[in-house]
Amino acid sequence: MEHALKLTGVALTLPAASGPVEILKGVDFAIAPGESVSVVGPSGSGKSSLISVASGIEQATAGEVVMLGASLKGLGEDELAKLRRGRVSLVFQSFHLLATMSAYDNVRAPLEISGFADVDARAKDALDAVGLGSRLHHFPGQLSGGERQRVAVARALACNPKLVFADEPTGNLDSKSGAMVAEMLFAIARDRGAALVVVTHDLDLARRADRMVEMRDGRML
Ligand SMILES: Nc1ncnc2c1ncn2[C@@H]1O[C@H](COP(=O)(O)OP(=O)(O)O)[C@@H](O)[C@H]1O
Ligand SMILES: [Mg+2]
Which of 24, 108, 133, 141 is deepest in the core (most CB within 10 A)? Predict the structure, then answer.
């Protein structure tokens, strides 16, 4: 497989009260297997929209997204879920952990849903890798912001995905915990051979990637 992800002429136009809004205006972008790319650009430039379309959360209005060799064009929810299962992960700014589950169960449950056999060992290894081996049975509410995001990183990487999307993963963290999360995200993605697309405002974080691209007004510069 030549690319982990390839976008060709991707546009996203959404309806709004005042008429259609062009959010992405023909984006071409590709990332190789195992490569890391950071996406920077001003607020409102379309970075989160890019992640939504590239990860299949939202359908492109025009152009094509090819994820792990498969076009997302015309895929239904089930086919898309099947394509992503265990191979594509997301990390969000606001962690998106389930409050009623322990750190361990937050990491373990998606592995189980994806049909992995060795879910216990995988979940534990992933939490060990983010330094939370001693916090397995803590609930999100009992963890700091940085620790919560490390659980989210463990959850994202536990399946050994081919492709990881992270949208402002350190955006809700102080600089010290943000640096730690970034360190772990890049290190584990590299160890496990995942391609990584990271949206960030933080230039220190952005510079850790193999390559940096910039969004401006719905276009990639
Ligand atoms: N559902 C939507 N409907 C209309 N406009 C939207 C929607 N989502 C985002 N936008 C607009 O699209 C532009 C890009 O947003 P976004 O991708 O969130 O930018 P960024 O992540 O770079 O801050 C912004 O102008 C935003 O207001
Ligand atoms: Mg955003």
Answer: 24
Helix (H/G/I), strand (E/B), else coil: 196: strand
How far is the centre of ligand 2, averaged over its atoms, from the C-alpha of 45 (Å)? 8
- The tens digit of pLDDT for each residue in 120-175 reads 999 999 999 999 999 999 999 999 999 999 999 999 999 999 999 999 999 999 99
Number of domains in the chain: 1
Q: What is the pTM of this model?
A: 0.95
The per-residue pLDDT for 1 is 78
Range of the domain at 166: 5-220
Nearest ligand for residue 49 CA: 1
